[in-house]
Design goal:
This protein is an alpha+beta fold and 608 residues long. Among the domains are: 79 residues, no CATH class; 79 residues, Tetratricopeptide repeat domain (Serine Threonine Protein Phosphatase 5, Tetratricopeptide repeat, Alpha Horseshoe); 56 residues; 157 residues, Heat Shock Protein 90. Helices cover 71% and strands 8% of the residues. The chain has 22 helices and seven strands. Strand 6 and strand 7 form a beta hairpin. Helix 6 runs antiparallel to helix 7.
Length: 608
């Protein structure tokens, strides 16, 4: 039995919706041939519309626009308003994809007029929303807001709660851009409430969008804790449903919120996670924002090498994005007309691209000036460190000698004076040594990585600090470690990181307390891809660290404000050095702390 035209069209549309675009294209071709044989203009229009959808999804944009234009014309001649609207909506979508927002807006407004002629509120609301999206691309948020609010009103009139929830979230986004954060939060909260009533899991994209819009408005209102919570929930759902664009957008907002809170380390971590996801899933359009933010953060932190690295990455991706948009414009013009006038317009567009390439060459010269600037900053930093080494260390040695001679000449003086001077001199020398060490680590010198057994390193660290632990009446042990454990590491730097952590623990462990060193093979599932690593831990039974302070422990010069910790002589650089060593190994570091249980510092390095 031969298939009917209706069954061919239904099968083609079903295949298209299942993303089986090659099959859909073949079925649409058969349907168009049969419709032409039957002289069925409505069937031809429908077949050409489905064919255009398939070509679009296969990336053949050149053929899509004339195909959709012909489908809309055939549908109009056959009086098929439904297909005419669908073809015109898809035409607007295609123009927008190709970067021609003027043509996209023209097609979208035409589809809105057709929808109003049809009188279907759902169609009208959809066309209003699509038109609002084009105005957003044109950076006309106020006009976009008018279309969104009209669509919202239609969904409410027809009691379409799902459509209402979607439009509330979209409108909230526009209100945030217009800095009307109170209304933005109200709309986003209502959107989230409606999605909960409808049933979570029905539309994960829109649910994540509602959470993100709540967080966006809360950031604007200074409600940081609530914003963090909603960003966390949004990220969890985006990860569950593999919504990679949303994951990157959420991490971008999270990093910006951490920046507002002054938590530089967490902001950097959020941006770097976003870059990792964007890179693995080829989301180039958001790359440049993340790179620019990271460059600014590292520049503020004085890490000029990384600042320059991320600035250059930002420039490269921004340039690539512009070239992509320019190429899209050329392709769109060629696809739109196929005549001599269009070819002339396309040639003008190509000349604009050539002009931009010349501009890029000038920009490259500017980049070289930026490189020189950052190199001068690095050199200045190194010169300052060398100056401090010579001009401060020598006077400190003289002070030590002076104290020794004064003790001899003034045997009856209060010993506390001399002890205080010696303590402060020792503290200054420790701080200088740690500053020099941090500068050395950040100078870009490569680590000497090789497979190394773990147990001898733990034993060496234990033996080095055992006497100090006994002096403080604390117990220092290292847990049973598998002798076969091998790490890919620089053994000198790895020992240095462990030594800093044990020294830190000794400062806070109480009399009779315990410090435990551990190492184990561990499955790290912090990223999108789990991997086996070596996890080191230093656990002490000292004072609990508050959550808000844990976030900043690895920042330079940070000191825990807990009153119980104020008596300890700390420079605030030891944990920053640990962080740098661990990250140069490609690992990560974190801290866990519970009341009455103490604190555990962890870090990972690659398994050998």
């Amino acid at each position: 039995m031969l298939p009917t035209l209706t069954s061919l069209l239904d099968d083609a549309l079903s295949a298209s919706k299942r993303s089986e675009h090659v099959i859909a294209l073949g079925l649409a071709d058969r349907a168009e041939l049969l419709a032409a044989t039957l002289k069925d203009a409505q069937g031809q229009a429908r077949a050409q519309y489905i064919r255009a959808r398939s070509l679009y999804n296969l990336g053949d944009y050149t053929a899509v626009i004339p195909q959709l234009t012909e489908a809309a014309a055939l549908a109009a001649s056959a009086g098929d308003l439904q297909t005419q609207i669908e073809a015109t909506e898809y035409l607007a979508h295609t123009h927008r994809t190709l970067g021609d927002v003027t043509a996209a807006l023209e097609a979208s407004l035409h589809s809105l007029n057709l929808a109003e002629k049809l009188g279907d509120p759902t169609r009208i609301a959809g066309a209003l929303n699509a038109t609002a999206g084009i105005y957003v691309v044109m950076e006309d948020a106020r006009t976009a807001l008018l279309y969104c609010e009209r669509a919202l009103g239609l969904f409410r009139q027809t009691n379409n709660r799902f459509g209402e929830a979607v439009m509330l979230a979209n409108t909230s986004n526009l209100l945030s851009h217009l800095e009307d954060f109170a209304r933005a939060l109200e709309y986003a909260e209502t959107s989230w409430r409606l999605f909960n009533e409808i049933g979570l899991g029905e539309s994960p994209v829109n649910e994540v969008n509602a959470l993100l819009r709540m967080a966006q408005a809360e950031i604007g209102l200074g409600m940081a804790e609530r914003a963090f919570e909603h960003l966390r929930l949004a990220l969890e759902r985006a990860q569950t449903y593999h919504l990679y664009n949303f994951q990157v957008d959420i991490l971008l907002h999270t990093g910006q919120l951490y920046e507002l809170q002054g938590v530089r380390a967490e902001a950097i971590s959020a941006y770097e996670q976003g870059i990792d996801i964007a890179g693995r899933h080829q989301l180039s359009k958001v790359y440049h924002k993340l790179y620019l933010n990271l460059s600014h953060l590292y520049k503020e932190a004085g890490d000029f090498q990384r600042a320059l690295h991320y600035y250059e990455q930002y420039f490269d991706y921004h340039e690539a994005l512009f070239n992509e948009q320019s190429s899209q414009r050329v392709r769109q013009l060629e696809a739109r007309y196929q005549n001599s006038s269009a070819r002339r317009e396309a040639e003008i567009a190509r000349q604009q691209v050539d002009f931009y390439r010349q501009f890029a060459e000038q920009s490259e010269r500017q980049r070289q000036q930026d490189r020189d600037y950052f190199e001068r900053l690095n050199q200045l930093r190194d010169d300052l460190m060398n100056m401090f080494s010579h001009d401060i260390k020598n006077p400190l040695s003289s002070i030590r000698i002076g104290v020794y001679l004064l003790r001899k000449q003034m045997p009856d003086a209060d010993e506390r004076w001399f002890n205080n001077i010696e303590t402060q001199v020792e503290r200054l020398q420790t701080m200088l040594s740690e500053v020099f060490e941090l500068v050395k680590l950040e100078s870009g010198r490569a680590l000497d990585l090789s497979p190394q057994p773990i147990v001898p390193i733990l034993q060496e660290v234990h033996d080095r600090h055992a006497a100090e632990a006994r002096r403080r009446q604390a117990e220092l042990v290292y847990g049973h470690a598998d002798p076969s454990l091998i790490a890919l590491c620089d053994p000198t730097r790895l020992s240095q990181a462990l030594n800093y952590l044990v020294t830190n623990a000794l400062r806070y462990v109480p009399v009779g307390g315990r410090i435990t060193l551990t190492a184990e093979r561990w499955r790290d599932e912090s990223g999108d891809r789990a991997e086996m690593v070596i996890r080191f831990g230093v656990h002490d039974t000292g004072t609990h660290i508050d959550h808000e302070n844990k976030e900043r422990l690895f920042d330079r010069f940070y000191r825990d404000p807990n009153p119980d910790h104020q008596g300890n002589d700390v420079t605030g650089l030891g944990l920053a050095i640990v962080k740098t060593i661990v990250e140069q190994h490609g690992g990560r570091e974190w801290v866990e702390s519970e009341p009455d249980k103490g604190t555990m510092f962890y870090f990972t390095v690659p398994a050998g």
